[in-house]
User: What shape does this take?
Amino acid sequence: MILGAGGTGAAPGNFVDDARKGLALAIGDAEARSPATLKLLRWRSGNITEVVLTLRTPGTYSATDPYNCPKVRTDP
Assistant: This one.
């Protein structure tokens, strides 16, 4: 079970509101950094551990989003 997430490089804390929104915000924060690391706080078999995932680094949204924005590129 995922208890919390963080994408800013800091240790993740427990979700305090809607977990779906918290996870989405953490993914967005992680994708804006290089390297894009997402830290998850998980509960498994009675133990709470931190898991680090490395994501693709698409960057942040541009001021002209969705036009000329590398994060929302649709071409292969």
